[in-house]
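2024-03-11 09:14:02 DEBUG pipeline.ingest accepted 1 chain
2024-03-11 09:14:02 DEBUG pipeline.ingest length=320
2024-03-11 09:14:03 DEBUG pipeline.predict start
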Amino acid sequence: MGNNAKIFMKSLLKSKETGIFLILIVLSVLIQMNNPIFFTFGNIMDILRNTSYTLIIAIGMTFVLIIRGLDLSVGSLVAFCGLSAALCMQRGVPVIVSILLGLFCGAVFGGINAFGIVKLKIPAMIATLGAMYMGRGLVLVITKGQAVYPLPDSFTSFGKGNLLGVPNVVILAFILAVIAHFVLSRTTYGRKVYAIGGNPETAGFAGISVSKIQISVYIISGVMAALSGIMTAARMGSGQPSVGDGIEMMVITAVIIGGTSLNGGAGTILGTVFGTLLMNVLSSGMNLVGVSAYWQKFVMGLIIIIAVGFDQYQRSKRRA
């Protein structure tokens, strides 16, 4: 029993998730020492709420990166799909139907990304970059840069509501994370996703329909971005054309920090949860300790470089 406990502790300490969690704890303590408001219930709920919108997108991005993909369109989809749902509601379409239409828009864009990448063999960065500009352009064409409001009370009350003090979006993000973890770790579909990320050619020889899995993953990413956009619109009580601008880089960085490799085949939802939380704790902490907004941009850019550089370093070590 003693040996088993030692083996468990060694494996636990070696896991990337444990390392990220420890960094998260140390960072939180340092921020608390500089500003006692950090560990108040209200501030913790604010951090979890802000984390949840990013985490919903990051869940889809985890699937994409595991298969060696990339999706730069998620930020524009947050705006476009949230606005699509908001416009439907404003025109009298029932709330549930409007939400489903918003999610459908995300699925369509995900399908467009997948078609360009899988069928036309366009590099993922180029295909999704094009989709990013298409989505942002449609937002401006439809709204002329103006917000869409008012929205139904039943919709906004859910976005702003909570259960026992915990915001509804936090509960939703937690449920989605649990489902995604189960899918990746316990299902045949999840094993196929990892197999494709490890080696697409070998996965194909093993009888896995590589193209179908790749298409489904980009659709998942599009739907998750759409859901985050719809929940953002519900919280703000309006569809805002500027939401999601630049969030794709924060999402990708959070997923990489969480242990998902840009080179595919590795990653966990738990790591993504910790990585996303770490990014938001850092952002909140810099605000609380009075770091200039200009320096915050610098720090976030530095973290992106470090995260990607460390991922590449680990890849070179595995090859050696």
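2024-03-11 09:14:41 DEBUG pipeline.report The chain has a mean pLDDT of 90.
2024-03-11 09:14:41 DEBUG pipeline.predict end
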